[in-house]
Write a structure and sequence with these properties.
By secondary structure, the protein is mainly beta. 7% of the residues lie in helices and 23% in strands. The chain has a domain at 16-54: SH3 type barrels (Roll). It has a two-stranded antiparallel ribbon with strand order 1-2.
């Protein structure tokens, strides 16, 4: 028996990228993964709705 090199299910998530967007209300950084881009999201800090389609890439991201 051989030991797998990766966790089961690794292949389906291999090409995901993360997106960080600052909340327009409180400025807190919020992160989502590329497969969640079309879903509704609320700020982890203040609970306001965040529209990730309006986010702009920041330097170093």
């Amino acid at each position: 028996m051989t030991t797998p090199q990766h966790c089961p299910g690794f292949e389906q998530f291999r090409n995901l990228s993360s997106i960080i967007c600052k909340c327009p209300e409180c400025g807190a950084e919020n992160e989502i993964f590329s497969d969640e881009f079309e879903k509704k999201h609320n700020c982890v800090s203040c609970g306001q709705k965040i529209d990730f389609t309006q986010c702009k890439p920041e330097a170093g991201a």
